[in-house]
Automatic annotation (TrEMBL):
This is Methyltransferase domain-containing protein. It comes from the Eukaryota. Residues 50-146 form the Methyltransferase domain. Gene3D superfamilies: Vaccinia Virus protein VP39 (3.40.50.150). Pfam families: Methyltransf_25. InterPro entries: Methyltransf_25, SAM-dependent_MTases_sf.
């Protein structure tokens, strides 16, 4: 039996490291959206909120930090058990939070029609098998007058740095890109198209732009090592050359990130500026 090769420098995948990789940029964008675009504190008492594709619970945590209305209830759903375990650990530290967690596909929600006053999906649509179905599910499960919020990335500087390192160490541009890095971008134009196909009218949809800083930690090389381990595995699996040239790849990403105009160091923490486009969907009927 042959074993799958893994470079000795690669970090084993787990939910806590995935959260470290993502940092708190989703949390900050979610909090800004809830306060500024949604007006969470002005929502009616006993509002019901869907944290759709909740991941580790960035939206749920932002709701609880944003002066929610009295009697608010949150339903947090995702299909990734590793993410849900992270959220459950958070909820164990906050047993009074009014949150129910369920495993559920955003493309096939089990909730009844008109369940929610607010549905928020931050950076979820990129990985969905059927984003048109997901946009339709958001509309179906919102109450009339309810608001859907769907955020997608506009600028991800770290992504390009990983692509450049892939090309540099793996034989040039003709080498198949690592599957995660090769995945089609899902951005504002795709979201607007899919929302229209799902039945959202132009009058129900507007976009806003949100920019926040992704905290990469005090050790930039550690963050890049996590990113390279999780995101840069080549098509067909790791090879010996990946172990042999691991430091070269990681160092090149560190250098590119540190020299970019979207990078800063603040209080000893490396940060990358990331920009999102956010659809604000107001259900009219």
């Amino acid at each position: 039996m042959t074993s799958t090769f893994t470079p000795k420098q690669a970090i084993a995948f787990d939910g806590a490291l995935l959260k470290e990789l993502q940092g708190d940029v989703s949390d900050k964008i979610a909090l800004s959206l809830l306060k500024e675009e949604v007006g969470l504190s002005r929502m009616p008492p006993s509002s019901v909120i869907h944290d759709n594709g909740c991941g580790y619970g960035a939206v749920t945590m932002a709701v609880m930090a944003a002066d929610p209305p009295a009697g608010v209830r949150i339903h947090a759903t995702d299909v990734n058990d590793m993410y849900l375990a992270e959220l459950q650990a958070t909820l164990a530290r906050h047993p009074a939070w009014p949150v129910e967690v369920e495993t559920m596909d955003a493309c096939a929600l089990a909730f009844p029609d008109r369940s929610f006053d607010l549905s928020v999906a931050t950076f979820v649509f990129l990985g969905l098998r059927d984003p048109v179905a997901a946009a339709a599910q958001v509309r179906r499960t919102l109450k009339p007058g309810g608001t859907g919020v769907v955020a997608v990335w506009k600028d991800m500087p770290w992504h390009q740095a990983l692509e450049n390192a892939h090309v540099r160490i793996r034989g040039g541009a003709d080498e198949p890109m690592a599957p995660f890095l090769a995945a089609p971008r899902y951005q504002k134009d795709e979201l607007a198209r899919d929302a229209a196909a799902a039945g959202w009218s132009p009058d129900e949809l507007r976009f806003v732009e949100k920019a926040e800083w992704l905290n990469l930690g005090a050790d930039l090389k550690r963050w890049v090592t996590i990113a390279w381990s999780f995101l840069a595995a080549p098509a067909g699996g790791w090879k010996q050359r990946d172990e042999d040239r691991w430091d070269e790849a990681v160092d090149s990403v560190v250098e590119e990130l540190a020299q970019g105009p979207w990078h800063k160091v603040e209080d000893g923490v490396h940060k990358i500026r990331m920009v999102s486009d956010v659809a604000i969907m107001k259900k009219q009927g």
